[in-house]
Design a protein that fits this description.
heterodimer; A: mainly alpha; 9 helices; 67% helix; globular
């Protein structure tokens, strides 16, 4: 399927966003790149279903999150893990690149239930409106709002921040000191 | 929840995400787009 000349630059501009969303949703760069690859393949096979003039980015995010959740449910069934505990632990970030500064945030994100993590990333990181996030996930507006709220609450509990200043340089220094192999 | 705390965590989340957005997109994904566009299929 040929890509419309007007769609091409938009598609390229969306790639970093799709990838950032996939990495933070799946917790793994490798998994994320597979997800983005599959998303592009599906999008271009079904490009006639895309309504020109609507948000291409939202459409691609919808495809990607559907792929992610299908995979997540499949894996959860395979390991007979009805509560998803194992599956959510498996999502913990062994090969994610990035700075030590965000180590704690990444690990807290990985512990959120996938629905909450997704809602938080769409609204608070990617900057979609609640309405757009509801359309992307196929959830009710109220459900999205409540997922974002619960995600925020849980995140701050997980990060055990009693004092906001605790997120400052001292904590960063400690994180660096504790990181294996940080002195080379 | 403490609004100040919320904004600290929100800010950190945005910086983390901005960091991810700055990462270069792997060549294989850009190349795939070209392949798909030429109708060569996406599966390797």
């Amino acid at each position: 399927m040929k890509i419309d000349p007007q769609t091409r630059p938009e598609l390229l501009a969306t790639l970093p966003h799709l990838r950032a969303f996939a990495i933070s949703l799946s917790g793994s760069v490798d998994k994320a790149d597979d997800l983005v690859q599959e998303t592009l393949a599906r999008a271009l096979t079904n490009i006639e279903r895309f309504t020109p003039g609507t948000c291409l980015q939202a459409w691609l995010f919808t495809i990607l999150r559907n792929l992610f959740h299908t995979e997540f449910r499949r894996r959860r069934r395979e390991v007979e893990d009805p509560d998803g505990l194992m599956a959510s632990r498996l999502a913990v970030l062994p090969n994610q690149s990035g700075r030590v500064e965000f180590e704690e945030l990444r690990s807290a994100l990985a512990k959120l239930p996938p629905d909450q993590r997704e809602a938080l990333l769409l609204v608070s990181a990617e900057g979609f409106s609640y309405e757009e996030a509801a359309r992307i996930t196929g959830a009710q507006l109220g459900t999205i709002k409540s997922r974002v709220n619960r995600a925020r609450t849980r995140l701050s509990e997980l990060m055990q921040v009693d004092d906001p200043e605790d997120l400052g340089p001292d904590r960063l220094v400690r994180a660096v000191l504790q990181a294996p192999g940080s002195f080379r | 929840l403490d609004p100040q705390l919320q904004s600290v965590i929100g800010e950190q989340l945005r910086r983390y995400y901005a960091d991810l957005l700055r990462e270069p997109v792997p060549e294989r994904l850009v190349a795939l787009l070209g392949k798909l566009d030429r109708g060569e299929g996406g599966r390797s």
